[in-house]
Fold each of these.
Amino acid sequence: MQRRFALTLLTAALLAGTAQAQQSSSSSSSSSSQWFSSTPTPGTFNWSGLYGGINGGFSPSIGNKIETQGVGANAANVLSGRRPGSITNDREGAVAGGQVGFNWQTGNIVYGAEADFDWADLNHTQNYYSALNDRAQFNQHQYTLGTVRARVGYAFDRWLPYVTGGWAYGRYSNGANFYSNAPGTPLAFTGNQSGFGSGWTAGGGVEYAIPTNTFSMFGNAVTLRAEYLYYDLGERTIGVNGATGGYASKFENKGQVARLGLNFKFGGPAVQTATVQQASYTPPPAQRAQAPRSYLVFFDFDRSDLTPEASNIVKTAADNAKSGNVTRIDVTGHADRSGSDQYNLRLSQRRAQTVQAELVRDGIPADQISVSAKGESEPLVPTADGVREPQNRRVEIVYR
């Protein structure tokens, strides 16, 4: 029942995140659907890059089957029920640790690899009493759990539902004690084995990127996640030996984990200050100084909104255009080379449309403004693919 409860919680979290992200995506795409109606419009957050963080959670109980066979004459004790042929041990407890990983993003698809390691306290002892009052005691304790997994998800702006799977490992112990029903119930058979086991894991989760203007750490993006994993570290058979032969008990070692995590996305956006770049020009003494014919408006990494400094530059361009009787203004959006070509083209389009809307608010008629997007095709500063260059994240305003 607890396992079904954990699955229900995870499913609800995934559906809630997806629904909210779809609502956000649909509202933000309305302004640019006329340009890119054939493909979904992603949000502004880029999931690519290295990340690391911490996690903690709970491992709900899950039935680990323990099967016992008697050796020699003790086989009859299993058949008669003095020792259990099969019994289930439910263990649960807390986990806590950390993770590190790397994401690549192509359009809305995010894929990557992650490794994590948790300290665990999953411990339970199961007792069995026969009709003759013979007691059998089984104990399982898991101390650590680690995984190395692949992840793939679909980004809805700052929401990322994903599935994951890969290799799992951990340190655990299995033990059994069989007591006699003689006076004092002396210990008659005992066995214990501990070590590392490995197997597989699979699960899924949902992650949310907190806007950097709300909360950030050293200029990096911060993400929150809820995640569920099922794992199986394989079976282990131990000898339960005594003075009169013994038994062999085979233990399953599987479990599930529901946990929350906090990640820091390294190499996040640094705060950039919008500036105007223009040629230095000294007019002749008798000539009246003229306003520049072009302006550059710069943007923060992976953003299309205007900073206060950028708004001032747009207002200056609008005021000078009105005073200079300018009849046409070209507004061209650009992006750096971090991200895919298609994503950067859409991002540069949104930047250009943001500047266009600000010029209109500052008194420039909309029919005098021509808007275009170049993506990463015309960098101001040539760079290699994937490089974040602040001067390439810009909109050019040119009087014609």
Amino acid sequence: MTTQAAALAHLKVLDLSRVLAGPWATQMLADLGADVIKVERPGAGDDTRSWGPPFLQDADGNDTKEATYFTACNRNKRAITLDIAQPEGQALIRQLAAGSDILVENFKVGGLKHYGLDYESLKTLNPRLIYCSVTGFGQTGPYAERAGYDLMIQAMSGMMSITGHADDQPGGGPMRMGVALIDILTGIYATTAILAAVEARHTTGEGQHIDMALLDVGMAVLANQAAGYLNCGKVPQRQGNTHPSLAPYQTFETLDGSMLLAIGNEGQFARFCSTAGHPEWSKDARFASNTLRVQHREALAALMQPETRQRSTADWIGLLEDKAVPCGAINDLAQAFADPQVQARGLVIKQALAQSYKAPVAINSIALEGADPAAKSPALIPVNTVASPLRLSATPPVLRRPPPRLGEHTDEVLGELGLSAAEVSVLRAQRVV
């Protein structure tokens, strides 16, 4: 069987982004085979390198200085350090951009123009360059120059107003997501836009500027909640784990904890009622349709809750699984990663960092046949990441490198630009790299 090259192996990406949204996009491109060169500040690097605890642990279980946050979105990249505030650093960025297909940055609006590294400046060197800017509020509008952060956007977009329990319930009040979801979704939208621009370039021969804003994404992913407000004028409220348009679609207490029921149609509801020993519920005029069940949600839950408490969560899942009634446990992360389906899908990637960045080692069993991912060595720092969910039959994501150490590939990348070891040493002495 012929093995095809990775889907994006022909693309080179210059990554000037940091923290989460931009790096998430560039990791997606890297997983699909693109050569991503991550540029970081000498001596400090990406902010998330120090965002801990938690930190990676060495083979003896001791904390290192490497924060786990950084590892979530920087796999498969090559890392260099470069001070773009110095003219020599700016010149090197121009050289790299001239040979790149894509540049991703998340500086404040106008921040790179001061260094001559904005889109208008770089497209004169490389008209085919696709230049993606990620900011909090976009390149235009009254808030354009403001810094934007995920939590701020969750609040401003209204996302927090529909997340959490109602004010009159225990623990009621606006609530943020458990992860920086707007950042992550912005990274995914950015990847989509970048690939669309690559496709457009096949026709036009030219690159373009992509303006990605966290606020724009935060508003877009309000989805059905936004559609309801825009078309009906009713402001949605927080309602905990219930659904504004479906019932029963919520958590229920069980004999040993809680479970989630996600019933979305009449057949599922009838099968649940029959399995629960109460077929009369599906014939009750109050519950004859989903719309009626939403209207009488509290009455229906009052009938169901005493019944769901009679069996364990596992028993309910077992009873309903072959009835095609969506029902599941509410896992913590340890339970989620121990789930047999998660394990069967190979969703955990095991790699390792060398203690010295000059000798990177990948110990993933897919990448290195016969290697033992569990092997312990004092020279290695184990690092686990979540696998890409993209499953392409012919050109699947590739695993080439663990998240890089700060400046790990500086000599390698500058050598590819034609700089000698002596020239790199001079730049290092000048703290340009």
Amino acid sequence: MTIAVTGATGQLGRLVVEKLKQKLPASAIIALVRSPEKAADLGVPARAADYGKPSTLDAALAGVDTLLLISSNEIGKRAVQHNNVIEAAKMAGVTHIVYTSLLHADTSPLSLADEHRQTEADLTSSGVPFTILRNGWYSENYTGSIGAALAGGAFIGSAGDGKIAAAPRADYAEAAVAVLTRDGDAGKTYELAGDTAWTLSELAAEISRQTGKDIPYKNLAEADYAAALKSHGVPDGFAAAIASWDVGAAKGALFDDGQQLSTLIGRPTTPLSVAVATALKS
């Protein structure tokens, strides 16, 4: 069996490839990347593949049995890009596509959900057997801001008391590998999230505990949070999007208590305390 991973040099993709290598010979894994030279350190065969250039995809997918389609990072272009890959996979005779979607994509109020809904629909109509991994929020989406919180004396956001069932990327990568390397998941959709949800106030308290500094959570209005992000160099459109996602979190968009992620990986998901400690060491 040959397994190909799109976006293999990305943050999630690299983790998936490393975990696949623990289960399969490197020759059975193909890294699909825009620039194969950047994948040299992965230790697996690499092929040029660009979501936005269908002409690159046919050769890239030749001989591939199972494909992990990691969602593109080009928000606004993703539905078209993903469909390019799905169509090429169909033509290449790929027998199973595993797609990284968004938690509760079918009902999520987040602006990110529309393109995932479209891709899920395209998979359904493709005729290729597929499995959907609806990934919840990565812990790193928030722990990546710890440095700024320590510098500014507070952790800021617009999530209110919303419960966030996050887990580190490594947990989601492990779940993807579990599905990629076993049979019986075709046609299934998994809602993947951390076992124990937390609020941004609880995150701030954990940062305070581990650093010995008083770092409170400061909840801001959506527009004020977007403005704060812009002041730190985040592009206007992305700042507005991040703030809107936090508002979605306040309404429960990032919460799930089904524990399907821990079931897939066969262990509890990584707790917040470990995610914070890891971020503080980096």
